[in-house]
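This part of the workshop introduces the protein records we will be handling. A record pairs a protein's sequence with a compact description of its fold. Comparing a sequence with its tokens is the quickest way to learn the format. To make this concrete, we reproduce a full record directly below:
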Amino acid sequence: MDKFEEALESLQALRGAVAQVKCPRLHDLNRIVLSDPRFVTAPGGSAHHHDYEHGLVIHVYEVMQNVFSMTNYHPSDELITAVIWHDYMKVQNYEWLDGKIVKTEYGKLIYHVAGSAMAFHHEASGMLSVEVLERIEHMLLSHHGRKEWGSPVEPATAEALILHTADMMSSKGKNVIIEAR
């Protein structure tokens, strides 16, 4: 299977995960990411992992698989939402230049960790309670796990730690093997 086909399958699987979200507002927020054509074509990185066209959607799908496995196939609506949004602003973090993936000015100045949280806040503010908004934003801001790895804060909740661990597993190619369900 080529990367384009894998990306389409990954997108379809992510839509299936989002279909399980019971909160209509979170479901609608997740559709923003899943309907953005840049989400399917963007690389997942420039050097460390998923550094190829369609890498972002494939990476997010792997993170979602890991999260489902780590939560015994019962992640919360908030955790599913955090998975969908955690790397979303990588769509602005990188661009292709002479056949290479390079970091944009946005990527240098804002970086996707803060950018994804800001984009989520922009879309979700006024739609969700402050408590739900803050829990999801905490997961987004802490998903790299450590300040020296680019997280403004470190995981302080179980769900934030699950997201960080699932993200690290995907970035290192150490995904949980998912059995067909």
